[in-house]
Design brief:
Structural class: alpha/beta
Radius of gyration: 18 Å
Strand content: 15-25%
Order of helices and strands: EHHEHEHEHHEEH
CATH topology: Undecaprenyl pyrophosphate synthetase
């Protein structure tokens, strides 16, 4: 990409299409998920190379727990493998890892791996990689409301203290800029309970490519689309 091209500060991606990718090749869904891990590796590297500051990936939703037990088990195995194999490289390349979502539903060893990944990379700043695991935006908003309600009930806040900024401070993405660009692969055109509050003024790109085939060209094409848009944030320019 040329040096004068606009690069979004924060890109979020809904990684969709692993199952269809596998089915089209006559392979089990698990092979699609494995190929999807390779796409994650490529995308993280590309994001760092082209100067994206924040990359947020929708890895596993709260609804995904409803999938067949065997598929969930395989996904958990891939998560373990990804962290164990990639953590050293991510750390070396200056990637900071942050996990959002309800990690209490994961097995103890996975929670430990996630905690260690966050601690080990906490001071890195080249790319801030957020992975949404066991995440649902509605649940995130409910948690934020509960935290604020507790502060009101305890007398630390009054109802007049409740502002948009206060709500943002109680979200799992506190301290992060809202996504400038959200990409969804596989041709689906919905956001599936992902970053509902944070995406109020986000630009969307829906790409027909299945996630395992997503590469640098697809990311750059999405950014080109983003760069050509006029972001008004509700104002008339």
């Amino acid at each position: 990409m040329s040096g004068d091209r606009i690069v979004p500060r924060h890109v979020a991606i809904i990684m969709d299409g692993n199952g269809r990718w596998a089915r089209a090749r006559g392979k089990p869904r698990t092979m699609g998920h494995r190929a999807g891990v390779e796409a994650v590796r490529r995308t993280v590297q590309t994001a760092a190379d082209i100067g994206i500051e924040y990359l947020t990936l929708y890895g596993f939703s709260t609804e995904n727990w409803k999938r067949p037990e065997g598929e969930v088990s395989d996904l958990m195995g891939l998560l373990r493998l990804f962290i164990k194999r990639e953590l050293a490289t991510l750390d070396k390349n200056g990637v900071q890892i942050k996990i959002i979502g309800d990690r209490h539903r994961f097995a103890a060893d996975i929670r430990e791996l996630l905690d260690n990944a966050e601690k080990r990379t906490a001071t890195n700043s080249r790319l801030k990689l957020t992975i949404a695991l066991s995440y649902g935006a509605r649940a995130e908003l409910v948690d934020a409301v509960r935290q604020i309600a507790h502060q009101v009930a305890s007398g630390k806040l009054t109802e007049n203290d409740i502002t948009e900024d206060l709500i943002e401070q109680n979200l799992s993405t506190a301290g992060m800029p809202d996504p400038d660009l959200l990409i969804r692969t596989s041709g689906e055109q919905r956001i599936s309970n992902f970053l509902l509050w944070q995406s109020a003024y986000t630009e969307f790109v829906f790409d027909d490519v299945l996630w395992p085939d997503f590469d640098r060209e697809h990311l750059e094409r999405a950014i080109e689309s983003f760069a050509g848009r006029e972001r008004r944030f509700g104002a008339v320019l």
